[in-house]
Amino acid sequence: xxxxxxxxxxxxxxxxxxxxxxxxxxxxxxxxxxxxxxxxxxxxxxxxxxxxxxxxxxxxxxxxxxxxxxxxxxxxxxxxxxxxxxxxxxxxxxxxxxxxxxxxxxxxxxxxxxxxxxxxxxxxxxxxxxxxxxxxxxxxxxxxxxxxxxxxxxxxxxxxxxxxxxxxxxxxxxxxxxxxxxxxxxxxxxxxxxxxxxxxxxxxxxxxxxxxxxxxxxxxxxxxxxxxxxxxxxxxxxxxxxxxxxxxxxxxxxxxxxxxxxxxxxxxxxxxxxxxxxxxxxxxxxxxxxxxxxxxxxxxxxxxxxxxxxxxxxxxxxxxxxxxxxxxxxxxxxxxxxxxxxxxxxxxxxxxxxxxxxxxxxxxxxxxxxxxxxxxxxxxxxxxxxxxxxxxxxxxxxxxxxxxxxxxxxxxxxxxxxxxxxxxxxxxxxxxxxxxxxxxxxxxxxxxxxxxxxxxxxxxxxxxxxxxxxxxxxxxxxxxxxxxxxxxxxxxxxxxxxxxxxxxxxxxxxxxxxxxxxxxxxxxxxxxxxxxxxxxxxxxxxxxxxxxxxxxxxxxxxxxx
Length: 561
Known about the structure:
By secondary structure, the protein is of the alpha/beta class.
C-alpha cells in the first residue's frame, strides 16, 4: 500500500511523484532540479521585480535571498514574477486607470502560477502600493503556508524631500512661486534610489497593516530597502515558510477577523492612507472575513493617531525605522488593550509572544506621541454618509485642515478637466471641487487624485478648497479630501447629479456629506440623468469595469455575491 504523502508536499507531490510524472520532472531538471529536490516541499517566490519603478527595482535580489532561505531550510525555492506598475509615474494620466486594476492582475497571476505549478508554500515580495494587497490576496486565495515580505522604504531625498515634494513643487511652479531651475533641482534629488515612497503613504501603510495582520515577519514593514536588515528579512522568510509547512499554518489561520481589527488599529495609529480602507476590505473578502466601512468607524472611536508622519506630518518612514519601526508602537497598543494579542502570526507564535521582548522607543524621539497626548484623539479616517454618499465615502481628516467645510460645488467630469481648471485659477478659495466618473466602473479603475490635490496644495489653497470624488487618493494626498464616494456617478449615484453652485457640506465630526438640494429636485435630476457610454469596450479596463464591485465593498473582481 502506498504511503500517504507528507503534508508539507501536499501540492507538489501530485506534480512530480511517480513514473507517470517523468515528463514533469524532465522539465524541472532543465531549470535546476535534481533527484533530491523532487523530495522537498516546493516554495514559490513571487517577485514583483521591475525596472518600471524604484519601489521594485531591487526586489529581484531580494527574491533570490528568499529562495536561498527556503533552500537552506530544506525546501526547494522557485522564483517567478508578477507585474508592477508605478503610481508615481502614471499619476495624472490615462495610464493611472490601470493602477488599481494591477492589484487584481497580481492576485490573479500569483494564484495562476502557484495553482498550476503545485507549490506547497509561498513567499511574495512587494514594493509599490498595489503590489502588497495584490500579493496578499493571491496568497489568501490559495491558502497555502505563506509569508509576505515588504521590499522596504526609500531614503529621503536632498532637503528631506520625496515624491510628494515633486508633485507639490509642480503646483508651486504653476502658481508662479517656483522657477524651472528650482523644480528641476527637486526632480533630480527627491528620489535617491530604490525603495517605496518615503512617507506614511499607501506602500508603508499597507506594509504596516500586513505586519499587524500577522502575514509578515516582525519588523518587515519598517526596514530600509537597501539594508542588511531587509536582506536578512528575506532569508528569514524563506526559513519561516518551511516552519509554517511543518505546522500546517495557512493564511486562513492568521487572517482572522481579530487580525484585521489589529491591521485597522495600526493604520489609524500611524495616520495611514485612505487606500487601506479599500485594500483591507478587499483582502478580508478574499479570505472570507466580513469587514465593512463601519468597522473603521468603530475602531476609530477608540484608537488615536499618534504618528507625526508625512503627508500631513513631518517625518518619513526611514526616520521611524531608525527608532525601532512599528514594533514598539504595537507593544504600546497591545499593553493599552487596543490590539488582540492572541492572534496567530507567520512566526508560528501569537502577536503577544512576538512583542514580548520588544524594546521601547528612545526617550528623546518625537515621531510617535504618547497615547494620552496624541496627534488626534480619534481616527483621521472618517467614513461619511449622507445624501451625496448613501453607501459611504472615505475622508482623511487629520484636523489640521479643519473638520467641517461647506461651499459651492465646482463640477468636473474627469481628473484632467479639474487639473486644468486648478492650474488656470478657475478653482478659487471656498470651492468644493467635484471630480466624478472616476470610480471603479466609470473611470474605470479609480484613479488617485494626487496631481490635483498636489496642485491645490502647491497653489496655497490646501486649507481653502475641498475635493470630493468617486475616485481615490494617493497616500501622499492631504488637505480636505473625500474619496470612494459610493455609489459612484457612473452607476447613477448622487455625485452624478451635482451641478455647479450646489452647496456641499462635509462634516467630519458628524461623519456626514450632504448636498443642499431638495429631494424633489434630486429626483427630477435623476429622471433626466443618462448613463454615459463606457470609456473602454475592449481590453483589461473593459473587463475590469464589467466585473468590479463597488468601492464600499473593496473594488474586488472575484466576489461571489
